[in-house]
Design goal:
The chain has 225 residues and is α/β, with parallel strands linked by helices. Strands 1, 2, 3, 4, 5, 6, 7, 8, 11 and 12 form a 10-stranded mixed sheet that branches. Helix 2 packs across helix 6. The termini are far apart.
């Protein structure tokens, strides 16, 4: 086994049907029903025009500053896949730019997440293909390896297994574990429905905020009537 320099097959992936069911769910609502314990970190921001990111994870672990295995992943990932790159968060060298973006668009991929840097940022920002990254630099990458494809990766404590569901919007990035997709979807839909009702009450002037004083009294705050 060439640990650290290998390409593995992906044995599972969340279905296109489930990806579509999450299409209009805000990442914040999904995060709330996952106990607010999972996140890709505040550094990972959308670098494109803001279109939401949804799709099964196709993972890449690479040496910081090197994109050889990302190039290989571009040819292996299936349409709709989201390439998730753990590059250690290093911002010294950009790992993708406009040319690699064009390849991903051509192949119909669902997006890319890079715990590292990009370049050609103006071109990336002007188009809808989802690109999440931690920063921007003009310095280009190396192409020497090593790296791994379809292995578990971690970004700021968020573990991502190949085939897990990746979600991203203006609030950030989230991974929904493969085996929890159905339960998380049901809980997030209920959360969204409750928020819609609350918004309607706010707009109608009937919003009940009595829970605030109740919480303050329970916590022993002085001066609460």
């Amino acid at each position: 086994m060439a640990l650290g320099f290998r390409i593995l097959p992906r044995s599972r992936a969340v279905s296109a049907e489930w990806v579509e069911r999450f299409r209009d769910l805000p990442v914040a609502n999904v995060s709330d029903v996952m106990a607010r314990m999972t996140a890709g970190g505040p550094r990972l921001r959308p670098m494109h025009d803001g279109a939401p990111l949804r799709g099964p994870a196709f993972t890449v672990k690479t040496r910081p500053g090197d994109n050889l295995m990302i190039h290989k992943a571009l040819g292996l990932a299936a349409p709709g896949d989201v390439i998730v790159v753990d590059a250690g968060g290093d911002l010294t060298n950009a790992l993708i730019g406009e040319l690699m973006l064009a390849q991903m668009v051509r192949r119909g991929l669902g997006g890319i997440v890079i715990n590292g840097a990009i370049r050609d940022s103006a071109a990336i920002a002007a188009q809808p293909f989802p690109v999440f990254a931690a920063g921007v630099t003009h310095r280009g990458p190396y192409k020497d390896g090593p790296g791994e494809i379809n292995v578990p990766v971690a970004i700021d404590g968020m573990v991502i297994e190949p085939g897990d569901l990746i979600l991203g919007d203006d609030d950030g990035l989230l991974c929904v574990p493969f085996g929890s997709v159905e339960a998380i979807h049901a809980a997030a839909m209920a959360k969204q429905a409750a928020e819609h009702k609350q918004m309607a009450n706010i707009e109608a002037g009937t919003h009940d905020a009595a829970w605030v004083d109740a919480a303050l009294r329970r916590l022993g705050c002085e001066g609460v009537e």
